[in-house]
Structure formats: C-alpha cells, structure tokens
Specification:
The chain is mostly helical. It contains 22 helices and no strands.
C-alpha cells in the first residue's frame, strides 16, 4: 500500500472488485447500523446516566438529530473536494472511520449533553466521508457500466442495518443493558477498520501488477465483456433517440462524434470563477441531476419513514413489543435484499428511467394499502406483513437509479470537458452532494412521518407520502435519462 518496498501481500485479493465492493458495503452498513442502533437507547442514556428531566428529553433528542444531519451536510462538500484532489481514496476513507470510532467512544463514556452532541456530530462527519468516498471508490472499481447492479446489491444489504438496527438496539438494551449495545458497535467498527486497512485500490495495485484491470482498461479488452456493454448502451441510445439520455455520457466510447453530444460541452469562458473552483456546481444546472438527487432524497425519506413508524404502528395495532416489531422488518428487507441486484442489473441494461418511474409508481398503491390493516389477530398481522412486503419491492427498484443517473450526467460533462473538471473528474464532489441529500431525507422522514401520524393518523400519513412518490415518479419520467420520446416529439426536438 505504498508503505513498504515490494508488492503488497495478497495483492490480487485485496484489490479484487469483490473485496473492494464488500469493504464499501460494510462501511456503509456500519454507518447506518451504528446510527440506528443508538436511536432507541439515547433517551435512556439521557435519563439514567445524565439525569435529564423527562420534560427535556425530546428537545435534546431533536438536538442530537440536528447535530448529526448538520455535521453531515457541512462535511460532505469538503470530503468530496479533498477526495477528488488526492491520488487515492483509502486515507480519507480510514479517517472517516476514525471519526466514527471517536463518536462511539464519546457516546459510551460521555457524561454531559455537550459531549453527546459532539459525538453525534462526529457521526455525521463520518457519514459524509463514508458515503462520499465509498461511492467514488465503487465507481473507480466497477466503472459506470456495472454501477447499477453494484449499487442495487449494496443498498439491499445496508438496508438491513438501517431498518433493523433500532429494533435490535432496543431489544439488546432491554435484555443486556447499554454495554452490550456498544459491544456490538465496537465489533462492527473493528471489522470495518480491518477491511478498510486491507483495501488496495485498483489503480494502486496496477502499479505493482500490470495485468490487473481497471475500468478504463475494459474499453480496449473485448474479452472482458465490453462488446456486450457497448451493444447494451447502443440499444439504449436507439430507444431514447437523440436527446440526452442515460447512454449519452458513454457515447464517446461507441464512436459518436462530439457534435452529437454538444449538450455536454461547457463554455468555460462564460462560467463564473467561483463555479470553476467547485465545478460540480455547473452539473447541478442539469435537470436530470436535480431529479436524480430528488430520487435519493425520497429513497432516504421512505426508508426512515418505515423505520420510524412500523414499530409504533405494530405496537398500536397488535400490542407488539420491540422484539415482535423487529420481525416486521423482515418482509420489508427481504424483497429489497433479493430484488435489489435484479433492479440494478436492469438499470445497467435499460437505463435508470424505467426503474425510477415504476418503483415510485409502485409505492403509491403499496403505501395506501397500509391503511387497511386494523387492530386484530393473525389475519390482520398477515395483511400488514403482505403490504409491507409490497413496499419492499418498490424500495428495491428505486435504490440504484439515483446514483447511476447522477454518475451518467457527471460522466457526460467530464468526458467532454476534462480540462474544466481536472484529471480525476467531479465524482467525489457528486457523491458528497448525494450524501447531503440522503442525510436530509433520513432526517426529514422521521420528523415528517411522526408529526403527520400524530396529527392525521397512520393511514393518512401514508397517503401523503404516496402523493410525494407519485410526484417523484412523474418527474423521473420527464427528466431521468433525458426527456421521453413522446415529449420530445411534442416540443419538436
């Protein structure tokens, strides 16, 4: 890894796509798992350890939430800028884990509210780094052609941590105390640290072994399946016509002339100086990218909404305790886990538009159906589980499109304006923005769902979230992957 003379041991294994993808997946899982694991025990830490009055616990809990979200938002842009400037991703990836370790130690030992707020802020900083650097490392490893199936697989895996951790934290705290909860946290951190330390990025490994392939090499190697990938993107190109679509950023590989891709060219002399210092800001002028970030925001909002409302609704309807409520996440997570890779592969083959449109449209009736179950016995519990599983299918579809579409747009601009963006491109900056948006969704979900459920009931809350999904589906149809053919014909494009 550059620290010792000679070739690093187990170079091929440590630089393999499978190991790098697994490391990023564990990193993202650990971030969401530790975030959710501590949610149910923070009120008890405040009351039992810090002797905070019951009347003040809610306000302090909200402060913890704001500290996490605020730190994540403010730390994401610097993380993206630094990652794009550095020659390798591993060092900032490790530093992000250091912040998470410090946060966990402070939460375990902290004796004042200020220390706990600092700990939550450090968690937010770690989240910004792991999501920004991790997604950029994925793109470096698999390239844009396989990004969809990779994201789909990882999101299915990490959803377990995001959705089940709060229930697990509550159960373990109830049975074994908060020491056992933190023992799980430190075990995850240890595994995460070992894997991040072992990773050798492909571009680094190639310096020791020239036979190791990196995504840029695949364009010259037909044996690696590139011919099939080119045909895939060519087919998408034929379906979408001449407008900017999901295959356009890759058209230069398929022999397209620069005149056919003029929509990607940036007239640098007209760009303000402050935008040139942070070139990803120019990409945000693309409605495709803006809607891609909306998709990420809604995905996070849905995940955190289920996280916040399923246990409380199960307790209200069926009298479930935290352990029983935890099993209700299984029908939500399993479809996500099983169908996420399938959705990702379809996104890679057909582009992100169809998955985003169908996924959010599917969520509309699936969410509305959740208003049907009522207080009762086994039949009502089965109905609730079936409707929750239907929502899991929709979640599987909407996982990959945002990252893939955002990467296509950034790649389109970068391929035609490399001097404007610099040698490494704007990808880490792009994923920094995605991290900010996703964090905002994770924050809004519980706040929105909790307040709506208290004000208008669980069924009506889901109806409002369903309307939000419908709007997102329509916007995805209009903008993800470029304007649909029928719209282009109507406006004469």
């Amino acid at each position: 890894m550059g620290l010792f003379e000679g070739t690093p041991v187990f170079l091929r294994f440590r630089s393999s796509s499978l190991f790098i993808i697994s490391t990023v997946g564990i990193g993202l899982f650990t971030d969401l798992f530790l975030y959710g694991l501590l949610v149910p025990i923070l009120p008890f830490i405040l009351s039992d350890r810090l002797n905070v009055p019951q009347s003040s616990i809610q306000s302090y809990t909200s402060a913890f939430l704001a500290a996490y979200a605020g730190a994540s938002v403010f730390a994401s842009p610097p993380a993206g800028i630094i990652a794009d400037k550095l020659p390798a991703r591993q060092l900032p990836f490790l530093l992000g884990l250091t912040a998470l370790l410090a946060a966990t130690v402070l939460l375990y030992l902290g004796q004042t509210v200020g220390v706990l707020i600092l700990a939550r802020a450090l968690q937010g900083i770690s989240a910004a780094v792991v999501w920004t650097i991790g997604l950029a490392l994925l793109l470096d490893t698999v390239g844009s052609e396989k990004l969809g199936v990779t994201i789909g697989s990882i999101f299915g895996f990490i959803s377990i941590g995001e959705l089940a951790a709060p229930v697990l934290g509550g159960v373990v705290y109830d049975k074994a105390g908060y020491g056992a909860v933190f023992a799980m946290a430190f075990a995850m951190l240890a595994l995460d640290f070992i894997m991040r330390l072992m990773v050798v990025e492909k571009k680094t490994a190639k310096k020791y072994d020239s036979s190791i392939k990196i995504p840029g090499d695949l364009d010259q190697d037909p044996e690696d399946g590139n011919a099939e990938q080119e045909q895939t993107h060519g087919n998408a190109e034929d379906r979408e016509g001449g407008d900017a679509n999901e295959s356009d950023p890759l058209l230069s590989r398929n022999g397209k002339s620069s005149s056919e891709n003029s929509q990607w060219h940036i007239k640098a002399e007209r760009v303000p100086g402050w935008v040139k210092k942070l070139p990803i800001l120019y990409c945000l002028s693309s409605p495709r990218l803006l809607v891609a970030e909306l998709v990420a925001f809604m995905q996070a909002t849905l995940l955190s909404t289920f996280d916040a409302t399923i246990p409380t609704e199960a307790k209200s309807l069926f009298g479930f305790n935290s352990l029983s409520a935890g099993f209700l996440f299984a029908p939500l997570v399993l479809p996500y886990l099983l169908l996420g890779p399938v959705a990702g592969k379809l996104v890679d083959k057909y582009g992100p538009k169809y998955a985003a449109v169908i996924g959010f449209a599917w969520e509309v009736p699936a969410l509305i159906l959740l208003r049907i179950p009522s207080a009762g016995g086994k039949d009502q519990i089965i109905s609730f589980c079936i409707f929750v599983a239907l929502n899991g299918i929709g979640l599987a579809a909407i996982g990959p499109p945002s990252i893939v579409e955002a990467s296509y747009v950034a790649e389109g601009y970068f391929n035609h304006n490399k001097e404007f963006f610099g040698g490494e491109g704007p990808y880490a900056q792009l994923y920094a923005i995605n991290s900010m948006v996703f964090s905002a969704g994770l924050t809004l979900g519980p706040l929105l769902s909790g307040s709506l459920r208290d004000a208008i009931g669980y069924g009506n809350m889901n109806a409002i979230v369903a309307i939000m999904c419908l709007v997102t589906s329509i916007l995805s149809w209009l903008f993800i992957g470029g304007k649909p053919e029928i719209v282009r014909k109507r406006i004469g494009m």
